Structure formats: structure tokens, C-alpha cells
Amino acid sequence: MISLSQYKRQWTHNIRGDLLSGLVVALALIPEAIAFSIIAGVDPKIGLYASFSIAVIVAITGGRPGMISAATAATAVLMVTLVRDYGLEYLLAATVLAGLLQIGAGVLKLGYVMRFVSKSVMTGFVNALAILIFMAQLPELDPAKVPMLTYALVAGGLAIIYLFPRITKAIPSPLVTIVVLTILTLMMGWDVRTVGDMGALPDTLPVFLIPDIPLTFETLSIIFPYSVAVAIVGLLESLMTQQIVDDLTDTPSDRNQECIGQGIANTATGFIGGMAGCAMIGQSVINVKSGGRGRLSAFAAGVFLLIMVVALGDIVAMIPMAALVAIMIMVSIGTFSWSSIKNLREHPKSSSIVMLATVFFVVYTHNLAIGVLVGVLLSGIFFAWKIAQLFRVRSEITPDGKHRTYTIEGQLFFASSEDFMKAFDFKEAPEKVTIDVSRAHIWDISSVAALDMAVLKFRREGAEVEIIGLNEASETIVDKLAVHDKPGAMDQLMGH
Question: Which residues contact 290 (CB under 8 A, 6 or more apart)?
């Protein structure tokens, strides 16, 4: 927990820089919030309300000053099926429940679980997110539904996005794209799809409301899987973004507090008609590079966003969808880690397999949580396999052949237990056997069981067995779980 004076300083130490960066972020958030709403299949106001609410609340309750949170594609893609099958009210309820789950994760201090997510999994996560964002634009590029003019507008929008920064970076190029394509469309009278065709924009401030759903176990069974997925994906992306901002600013932050802050924001957002969200990698980097460092930058971004949308809603409705498609393609291209393709040849095969598996399962299931889970499991399996290869057993016997010493080196656990047992010659039957584990570490019940079996088999052959060199941790687990010195141990072995 930080002190009150530290918390106050996070609000006040960079007021001018935070306000200016917050304005830049707010301008850039408008098209993305609308686009993410469309991805989820809801009215633009759902994403806009969410971006306002989440940005403001996380600024107050989060654990990482200077990080921007709002409605995101990562959570939006998870809600598509729920909205299509059950409607908006179920999305709001799932958002509330996801927030409660995130609060629980923070209270249980699960933020530190991120240390088990490898770099390969993170790269796969980001690449898969980029692919899903691009795939979500394909319906707006369907030649059966849109005129050919749409393709020209998208191409023009991408040209502005990438070329305008060469003139000046003072104004976000996505905002310039929106302005130029909107004016061009209105002046030429082109008949293309606009944001207004997707649904009504907000013209009032958000109000408190309770999702209109039946409070039954059937409802819970419907929204719970979506809420779990949103909670996990939201925390994963938030904590990864948090690490990036930590590195950019060279300052520490509180992971568990960020989990709680994200949870409070999502819970509250569901009650004002907003969709779930999380931290945004792109917007957070924009904020930091624009001079934002404190909590005020995220707070200002949310407030400026709401003011502009409510005051300029009629103008926002005129924005051609082609402009938003161009922006989301830019987000997709910028999110994808292109260096990871080149690194497939340079990185270890196990790392590349983990990255590709994460991408495949995320894209195949459209669920970022499943892909990350597969990646983490594969990372664990490859790590265990690699550590098991470092295990070896050496032995030497006295000249008279009466005393053999086995020296164990490496990590003794479930993956190396089989090699441990194969290293012993139980039929040799010297008078004394010493098992030296001073260069080894015993980790789990499988390794203790293997040690038991080795001792009992040697004793069955008439040898005296001594175990030496146990370190403190290994001795603790052996004393607790081993049975080779307990009454009836030999009978249990013979029974098997």
C-alpha cells in the first residue's frame, strides 16, 4: 500500500503534462471505442461510456499511474457470441461479474501469477490479438455488402495514418483520417456506411441502471463462462501493459492493486451501460510518449472523451465506417510483433512452438484465455523437459567391491524420476550403498517415491543403504513423505 502523500503526488506532480497527454489520448480513444463497440455488436455509445468510465475509475483505483484503460478489442471479441445470442443486458451483467472476479483476483494477490507467463506466450498473445482485430474488420470489407468506393476510402485512410506523422505528430493521425474522410464523404455525397448506421450515439451523460435479466442460476450459467474469460483476458492484457509502462517510466507499480482497480472499474461500468475493458497497450504508450506520467492523465482522457462525444455526437455519427476500418487495420499492424516471424529461425524451437501454439488456439477459439493457457502449459512442459535433461547419476565402487556410492546431480522431480531409477544396479548387491544427493534437489512426491523405491530395493537385496547430503528443503519433504524407514515399508514393496 502506498502512503497518502505518495498517492497525492501521483495526481499533482505533472499536472500540465498529464492534461495535455490526456487530451491527445481522448482524441485517439473516440474512434477506437466506437470500433470496439462494433466488434462486440453493440451501439457505439456502449464502448464510449465504457471508455469514459473505465479510464476515470482506474485512474483513481488502479496500481499503475500513467496507464490508460478503456474498452478494448481483447474483451470485445469475447462478447460477440453473448451479444448475438442473448442481447445487451447479458453483456452488462457479464461485465459486472467479470469485475467482481477481478477484484477477487486482486484480493487473493493473483497478480504475481504473471511471472509464469513467458515472453513467448506474451508474443503469441499480442500476435493473436492483432489477427483477431483484423478479422473483425472483414465484414466491413465484404464486397457483397459495401460499395467498391469503401476500399478506396480505406486505402486513403491508411495513407493518411502512415504519412501524416511525417508532417507533424502534434495531432494524432487517426483523428486526421476521421476528419478528412468524413469531410470528403459529405462534400462528395458518397453513399457509404457511417457510424450512425451502426446505432445511436449518446447525447446524455451515463446513468446508473441494473441489467434487466432474470436473477437465476440459468442466467449465471450463461454469463459465467464469458465473465471468466473477460476477467482473465482483461487482467492478462492489463498486467502486460503495466509491465511495459513500468519499463518505459522506470518506476514500480502494484500488480494486485491494478487487478482490484480494473475490477472496480468493470463492475461500475456494467451498471452505467458500458462494456468490459482493460488496459490498452497502444494508448498507454501514446500517453507516456506524450508526457503523461500521473493518474491525472487517464482521468483527463476519460473526462475529455465524454465531453467531446456528448457535445459532438451528431458529427461523430457522420464518420464513414471506412475510416474506422483503416484505424483498426493500423492498430492490427502495429500490434503484431513482426520481429517474431524472423525470430522463428533464431529462437529455440520450444519458444517458437509456444508462440505459434498460443496464436493458433487464440485465433481458432477466439478466446485469448484459452490460447494463453495452452501457451503457459507448453512452456511448463518444455521447461520441465529441459531441466530433466540436466539430471545425471554417477557411481563409483570401492576396490573390494563392498561399497558403492551413487552421486546424484540436478533436479529430482517427476520428469527425472525414471532416469533416477534406471541409474541403479539393484542386482549387484554390494554390502553398503550410499546415495549422495548433496548436488541435487528433491522437489515432489514422485521424486520421494522414487527414492523410497531405490532404498527398499537395495535393502531387499541385503545392502545397507545411507542417504547423505540432503539440503534443508529436500530433507523437509523427505522427512514428511518418505516411507523407507517406516515399519512395514518392505512389506508394502513386496506386496507390489
Answer: 17, 20, 21, 24, 25
Cell of 89: 443486458
Asked if 42 and 80 count as a contact pair (C-beta separation under 8 A), the reply is no
Tell me how far apart the 2 most distant CA atoms of the chain are, in Å.
102
Nearest to 193 by CA among 395, 19, 35: 35
pLDDT tens digits, residue range 334-356?
778 888 888 888 888 889 999 99
pLDDT of residue 492: 61
Contact indicator for 269, 95 with CB cutoff of 8 Å: yes
Cα pseudo-dihedral 414, 415, 417, 418, rounded to 10: 130
Model confidence at 495: pLDDT above 60? no
Indicate the SS3 state at residue 60.
helix
Q: Which three-class secondary structure state does DSSP give residue 332?
A: helix
Nearest of 449, 452, 455 to residue 406 by alpha carbon: 455
pLDDT of amino acid 438? 92
Q: Cell numbers at residue 281, please?
A: 497497450
The phi, psi pair for 292, rounded to 5°, reads: -75, 130
Percent of all residues in the chain with a pLDDT value above 90, rounded to a whole number: 35
Return the closest-CA partner of residue 282 out of 468, 74, 492, 9. 74
CA distance 323 to 188: 16
Q: What is the pLDDT of residues 428-437, one digit of tens each?
A: 878 999 999 9
Long-range own/partner contacts, residues 339-343 (CB < 8 A, 24 or more apart): 340/123, 340/127
Using only the alpha carbons of the chain, give its radius of gyration: 29
What whole-number distance in Å separates Cα of residue 321 and Cα of residue 1? Answer: 45
* C-alpha–C-alpha distance, residues 277 and 92, integer Å: 12
Between these two residues, 315 and 164, which has the higher pLDDT value? 164
